Each structure stands twice: as C-alpha cells, then as structure tokens.
Amino acid sequence: MARVFVYGTLKKGQPNYKHMINTAKGLAKFQGRGRTAEKYPLVIAGKYNIPYMLNIPGTGHQVAGEIYSVDDQMLQFLDEFEGCPEMYQRTLMRIEVVEWEGKGGVGEARAAAEGVVECFVYSTMTYPPEWVGLPYHDSYDSSGKHGLSYVLRESR
Questions:
Q1: For residues 129 and 6, what is the distance between their CA atoms, to the nearest angstrom?
Q2: Distance (Å, whole) CA 58 – CA 78
Q3: What GO biological process, any one, is recorded here (predicted)?
Q4: Across 71-114, where does the E strand assignment appear?
Q5: What is the pLDDT of residue 113?
Q6: Are the C-beta atoms of residues 66 and 5 closer than 8 Å to each other?
Q7: How far apart are CA 68 and CA 52, in angstroms?
Q8: E-strand spans in the chain?
Q9: 2-139 architecture in CATH?
Q10: Which position among 38, 82, 86, 101 bears the catalytic label?
C-alpha cells in the first residue's frame, strides 16, 4: 500500500471523489486530514478550472487535503487520471497530520503520532509561467468563494 495526499477534486465532497470509492479502480482507504509541511502555490487554472499545486516549495500556503492508503491498482489509476507524468508529477512530500483515523502497523502509528507522514502528491512542474501570478489558495473546494467551478471531464 502507498500513501497518497489529495488536495483537489478527489477529496470527499468534491466532483471526482467518486473515483476514490470505486473499488473497480482499486482500493483507497481514508487515513486522515493533513496539510503540506512546506508551503506551495495552489492555483485554479485553465479553461476547466482545475486545481494545481505548483511544485515551488516555500511559496504560497500550507495546502490542506486528505491522506489515503491506496493499493497498486488505485495508484496506477491515479497516475493515469492525473496525466502523470505530463500534466502532474507524482512526488513524495512531507504532510503534517491534522486528524488521523488510520489504523495500521506500528510504523504508521508512530508517524501519525509524530505528526508528519510521507505521501505521494500530484503536483506540477509543467505549467505556463503566468500561473505563478494566479491567486494562491490554502484549500480547494470546487464550489468555493473563488467562483471558479470545476468542469467535469464528461462535460468538456
């Protein structure tokens, strides 16, 4: 099992969460809520209002999201879904645990108790330079006050 941190449309209550609970795509077990240990710019960009975490450590905000434990099948699905490695790149990042529900081995319990876990995160290093000038968010909600509604793939 691998640990994945999601900060956008794959979170509970967001437009693509359905994929996280579709066992035909693999297993994803909710472990808890967290935020990036470092600051990153989280922007909403493109004509479909997609949330992107730009891989510029030290800029922006600590980004809030959810921590999941996923099997290899779900990880492969997420790589395809996220357009990895062209659109997003899957990298390991340190995530501060805000709330932990995960049940696992001693190592997992220790990591949660220490308050930081390593997770795969889909961020991007391949973005137009003007995205750096977009507003930075510390969390994402597709129907947030930013007014930039996410456009589902099936509606594009």
A1: 24
A2: 26
A3: modified amino acid catabolic process
A4: 89-100
A5: 61
A6: yes
A7: 19
A8: 2-6, 28-36, 42-45, 50-53, 64-70, 89-100, 116-123
A9: Roll (3.10)
A10: 82
Average pLDDT of span 113-118: 83
Question: Average pLDDT of 69-84?
Answer: 98
End-to-end, the C-alpha distance of the chain in Å comes to 33
The pLDDT score that the predictor gives to residue 111 is 59
Phi-psi sector, 32: left (phi>0), alpha (psi -120 to 50), beta: left
At residue 90's C-alpha, the angle toward residues 43 and 49, to 5°, is 25
Cα torsion through 88, 91, 94, 95, rounded to 10: 40
Q: Answer whether 45's CB lies under 8 Å from 64's CB.
A: no
The β-bridge partners of 127 are none
Look up residue 56 and give its two tokens: 């510029």
For residue 54, the 8-state DSSP code is: B
Residue 65 · residue 35 · CB < 8 Å: yes
Contact between 56 and 130 (Cβ < 8 Å):
no
Q: How far apart are CA 40 and CA 20, in angstroms?
A: 24
Residue pair 54/4 in contact by the 8 Å Cβ criterion: no
CA atoms of 9 and 17, how far apart (whole Å): 7
**82 flagged as catalytic:** yes
